[in-house]
Amino acid sequence: MTLSAMIKQLEDIMRADTGIDGTAQRLSQIVWLLFLKVFDYNEEVNEIEEEDYAPVIPEGYRWRDWANPESTKDQRTDDDLTDFVNNKLFPVLRGEPITDELGEREVLFASEAPRARLVKNFMDRSHNYSANGIQLRKVINVINEVNLEDVEETHEFNNVYETLLKSLQSAGRAGEFYTPRAITSFAVRHVNPHIGDVVADYACGTGGFLVDAHKYLEAQLREADADPVKRQDIIQKSLIGGEFKPLPYMLCVTNLLLHRVKEPQIRFGDSLTEVRIMDIPEDKLADCIVMNPPYGGVATAADKDFFPSNLRSSETADLFMAMIIARLREDGRAAVVLPDGFLFGTDGPKLEIKRRLLRECNLHTIIRLPESVFAPYTSITTNILFFDKTHTTQETWFYRFDMPEGYKHFSKTKPLLPKHMEVIDEWWDNRVAIADPDVSGAWKAQKYSVEELEANGFNFDLCGYPHEEEEILPPDELIADYRSQRASLDREIDEKLAAICELLGIGVDNE
Description:
Radius of gyration: 24 Å
Order of helices and strands: HHHHEEHHHHEHHEHEEHHEHHEEEHEEHH
CATH class of the largest domain: Alpha Beta
Number of helices: 18
């Protein structure tokens, strides 16, 4: 069974469980169960590969013991299962004391090892919503059908979050969107992480950029003939991230565990308030930064306090960009996905951030992306900015990525694929100016000197898309497009309302 098919089947089973109310709870339930299965699989592999390796979770509380025992007669179900999960499993994995047969309180999981802290932190953010042990057993049995030794299935985990997002979106509760793997792999490839580099994504979602960086580094280590344990140790130290929202954070940790990262270095919290950019210590710098920061959000007063007054934008994307410039190490490389608004915005903070980008970094390439790259999550037009800290900007190439032949827009049935990016790869290695075939005197690809960019008022809206007459879509696609635009506006309104309520110190009703 594929992971995506598994998600749908699990949701169908849980609809019969009276303890689970709505899509968000069903997805949260799936996430902690998947985590424990993946963590235990990871432990079993470590036991095989490393002599004297001791599993972190105590015997009796590992997935293999209670969820997937060798004998089906030892399977817990019904009230016995819910009682064990609620009163033993969760307290133990959170490091809480439980009552033994003699009525004494004891702590079975007191380790402070990094992997133990990972389990405790994860389970602290999880909750068993199931009230029906029979339905819970059915859910567990379906999850046990997933073969984590199957390379295709484990690679497909990258797409599980997209499935979850679509479910959340249908419930009107999606607050983020999935970055297509074609974008993440393209960005990582052209940032070109080296063995020993620290690769960071400070708004990592479920870890798409980090997983692609993992694959990229692992290929180099295999070529260098490094042994498996050494490979994983190097990669362990190479990948760092941060995520503000619980669900994607937990999926990111699980995703990296599935890719054999023993102790994922993913910080749960707001990366904008991790460190003041005026005095960033050496250990908070990164050699490579690849990310798609959240945009459309309103920065809080706490966020702004971590930035100098001339950079205190109200837009989260602007603050992330300022932070990325500050946290990129000398000679470091970055690829950042940003909306059009950053390119042509000329308000005070945006202007200062772009001025710093040109003077502190080498902004060498901007790839303009089509509007529908992130459909159906948002219709915002985006760009990938590539820069490094080798020297100040002398010139910047702009390249407009046009829709592939036969495509009017990307969609669920016709998504952006890695092969579509190959045309940019070909241009990247042999950069030439390309005239716009549709607009006289305009360019599809062109380079501009830093003097030209400054003379243009730091407006980077160059080599853009020509204005086209609105396409008349079939009724079903037209409705889907309107719903996507409405969801995007609803999210923006909700985020701004939440920020205003936070400033006023009052609650906000999201229903």
